[in-house]
Amino acid sequence: MAMADRGSDGHLNIIYWQAPSILNPYLSGGTKDLESSSMIIEPLARYDEGGNLVPWLVDTIPTVDNGGVSSDLKSITWKLSAGLKWSDGSDVTAHDVVFTANYCMDPAGGCAQLNKLADVENVEAVDDLTVKVTFGVPKPFPYGPFVGSEQPIIQKAQFADCMGAKAPECTEQNFGPIGTGPFRVTEFKANDVISMEANPMYRDPAKPSFATVTFKGGGDAAAAARTVLETGEFDYAWNLQIDPAILSDMEAAGKGTVTSSFGTAVERLMVNLSNPDPALGDKRSTLAGGPHPFLTDAAVRRALSLAIDRGILTEVGYGAAGKPTCNVVPGPAIYVSTANDECLVQDIAKANNVLEAAGWKRGSDGVRSKDGVRLSILYQTSTNAVRQDTQAFIKQWWSEIGVETELKNISASVFFGGDQSSPDTYQKHFSDIEMYTNIFSGTDPEAYMGSWVCSEMPTPENNWLGNNMPRYCNAEYDALVAELAGTANIDDRARIVITLNDMLMQEGAMIPLIHRGRVSAFANSLGGVRQNTWDSELWNVADWHRK
Amino acid sequence: MTEEITTKQSSQWRDVWLQFKTHRGAVIGMIVFFAIGFLVAFGPLFWTLDPNFIDIRARNQGPSLLHPMGTDQLGRDTFSNLLAGGRVSLLVGVTAMALSVLFGTLIGVISGFFRRLDGPLMRLTDLFLALPLLPLLLVMIMLFRDTLRGLFGPETGIFILIVTAIGLTSWMPIARIVRGDVLAVKEREFVLAARSLGTHNTQMITRHILPNVMSPIMVSATLSVAAAIITESALSFLGLGFPSDFPTWGRLLYDSTNFMKLSPERVIYPGLAISLTVLSVNYIGDGLRDALDPRIRGR
Amino acid sequence: MLKYTIRRLIFTIPVLLFISLVIFLLLDLSPGDPTAQLPMTVPPEIREHIRQALGLGEPMYWRYLMWCNQFFIIEPLNIIEQAWGISIGDGANRTRVMSWSTRSPVVDLIIERTPQTLWVVGMSYIVGIIIAIPIGVISAYKQYSWFDQTGTFISMVGFSVPTFFTGVLLIVIFSTLVPTDSIFWLPSIYDTTHKVTDWDSFIFQIRQIIMPVFVLGLYNASQISRFMRASMLDNLSLDYVRTARAKGMRERVVLLVHVLRNSLIPVVTVLALNIPHVFGGAIITEQVFKVNGLGALLILGIEGADIPLVQTLTFIFAILIVFFNLIADVLYGILDPRIRYD
Fold first, then answer.
1. Are B246 and B266 in contact (CB under 8 A)?
2. Which CATH number fits domain B16-42+77-297: 1.50.10.20, 1.10.3720.10, 3.30.465.10, 1.10.238.10?
3. Interface of chain A against chain B, CB under 8 Å?
4. Which of B127, B138, B223 is facing C22, going by the closest CB pair?
5. Which residues of chain B does C223 touch, with a Cβ-Cβ cutoff of 8 Å?
6. Is the pLDDT of residue A325 over 80?
7. A205-246 pLDDT, tens digit each
8. A111-130 burial by CB neighbour count: b if 16+ within 10 A, else e?
9. pTM score
10. Residue B98 has pLDDT above 90, yes or no
């Protein structure tokens, strides 16, 4: 197939219904901003659609074997490819890479990607094309800095005056970064539309095939899907979270294709192992307030999980964009456990038996109780049509096993925010069960598993800043997490992660429901799309062409 | 010798009723409104299907004997959802309207009648007009949701919260319009006459001013029922409304908008319900306006 | 009248300041959080770090005074500098009101969005007025005729069906069901980069605003025609109309010169009052057609808990509301000789 010359395919139209607000990923963690900026600025290496690390601005990935990573696992050396140029014509050097790291690590900058530079002690330019990163502790997985769409390289000359507190004020730079990517910005209207043109300095002279791009934002997912699949106004739409029946009906029009791929996102029910009773006042949902009256009973948790038909939930709410799962780590494949798969099949009868055997008897109102404790659950989640449907299903199934449920939904900006004064945040967890999706970036779950150690519990003392929503605390778990941090061998790491996953499942910190994928749609006339959930979906936009 | 002509003793309200009856649209509107109210209030006693019951095998079905209006994507019966939703939507519409009309008329009349209070009250109106509804609702919910839930239970608690929020944010146009009319009426000769007879302020307001400003109040009241129902649906979609297992017409309409191509009937039923209700209320308002206006009555 | 106007104008300033304080308190108390929209992969310590960098750690009164300084002093200075090309003080180092999500000046965002708002929402307001007034007049004149019944019915329907429904319905019909190459096909997404330079681009602009203008225009026309009709009915039964007819004036003169003029008084004031809503009130329609105007900006700000953006936008709406209230009052006083303010 003949490759077109640069710019020969004309115009490309992309629609992201959540509009990009800024093109600097260091000042925003929003996925839409990361993805739109990935067309312009690039990292040293990134993940392909299979989750494999591929070199991007370098020729090879440094490893212990080729000497790029030191044997004590404390430093990694990257060698830039020769002849790389910024879109304004100047050379890409190691000093730009060093500058990028310092830009993000500046304490006054509020860098949103700081955690990817965790444990970095020093970044230096050994020569004009070589960068050495030194860590304070041995890192078995040193591919945090400069890898992935969260860590693109920015030009030192452009951002020189934007360090620290001045970072947010450099609007011109934030809205039009100079990069090495296949496109450069011609106009940026925040939260509205980005106009781009092919980068004349791009390293491959025959790419990109498109001369200009319009990157539009706004509206909702259904409207975005419509523009690709039915009206043909756009070529690519991202993140189409809509009812699968509607989506397949749109696809039947024949103008576009729906594609889904799976990363690490799992929609799950977070159990509250502490007591959310409002009568406890300040001690509400903390360890100090005592254990949960019934969710600490393994039989109850097992019954709740058995009563759920994950297949129906997937079919109705997610379609091709979901798979039932019983694990909190659904991928990559080496980390997936098979020990918990009992939950894949709904069994109301067994659930009822489990509860009977544990002493939970039905009262006159149909609700089970034991020693005066009723099985009455407050189940909260964010406002979202699919989530509300899921809640409706689960409420009905739980009523069949004698559990009474009250449903609550909260606006996303409140639920996922950290506002201390609001009782409705997911950190505070002032409910018995809350539902949302969590993911980890890249392919390594080490930081993710560290979310459920005892010290990560949100409490009033640490301003509710923590990741351990279920308030799970187990010394064995903490010890294993520490062991993982020092293990280098990939098979040993996989074994530990699987053990950790099983501990969380069996001790009921959470009840996983659905492994969620990302659904996007592209026009049938668009070629070269390789949908990627491990990095930006636009990672290979340079290869896109008109068929 | 003249015969004694006896005419029936006629009260003012009887005259109003007679005039109202001549407005065909208003009468039809009244019948439709009461029919909807009756259906919604007593329907669930006969049609006992639980609106929340999920029957997954009966998903996305068209009309049938078991489900006269079909089912939604979870297999819930649309007809019972419509009935249950009607109760909530009608209640919200009428209560919110009553609140905003009460408040708006109070402020409008006082502001128009008492010149010294006019300035401050109108600035208060400006303040409320400038307040953004959504953050206000978020704050109210954050502050009061748990207390109301504890006192009245989750549904009634949210009902009071929503009705108060809508009422608090929609009285301003009514106040302005009423004030405008009060200002105009205040200058009329009969008011001057009444004042020179020594009528007290309260009597002046209730006997002379209020009946003459009924017209804009009626129009605003009927418009605000529609606005209240639609505002409630917008709020439900933003998650600031009733819990999701609580159907309302607005939510039903919103949920089905995306299914328009697949199953258009699902959109038509709640849309029709809202439109019919609003239409009938508006026609009643129109008839009432004609009937209460002494200049039109008996023409 | 003049005394009244001056008195009102003087009062406007403390009123506006008070309103800005109330709005600020409301937004501060409101439970949203600007870091809520960040993906789960950003850990809580980083979120706290970002919050501090945004200035959320400072005490409330300090943040309010900062905003006042930025809005009342720095922004006007900037506008003066740009309008007259002069330079006052140290222009480069002044901190302007910055949005938390885009990290760019809020005023620039607003200016960027005003054209499409005026094109779509402003146009629909004008269209609504042009349609509604004749309909209202004729409906009132021929009360209970078939024209009145039909007109009333259509306006009721236009008013009671929500805009997200009519908008999506129109999109389904004109963008999806109608084939793309037909002359009747209409784009479902508003292109804000489109510039009108010649006849063809003008036609394209018309095509992309037809649907949102129709949706909003119908909604506006319904409300206005009801008011027009009610006002006309009030006036048609008054004595001076009977006198005019008795004097032998032609019906058209009676209607258009006498009755219409007097009936327009309350309608004009209602129209003036609703002008501020042109700027911020068409949120749903803007969402449906992706017009990305000021209403959409407000919703985005509220959902993202972007307090400087919401504060500035809401306050600008407040200024417009207070200002147009004043205009409406003064207009009412001028047009209706029965009103006395002093």
1. no
2. 1.10.3720.10
3. 222, 242-243, 245-246, 249, 278, 312, 316, 382-383, 385, 388-389, 391-393, 395-396, 406-412, 414, 421-424
4. B127
5. 223
6. yes
7. 888 999 999 999 877 788 889 889 988 889 999 988 888 888
8. bbbbbbbeebeebebeeebe
9. 0.81
10. yes
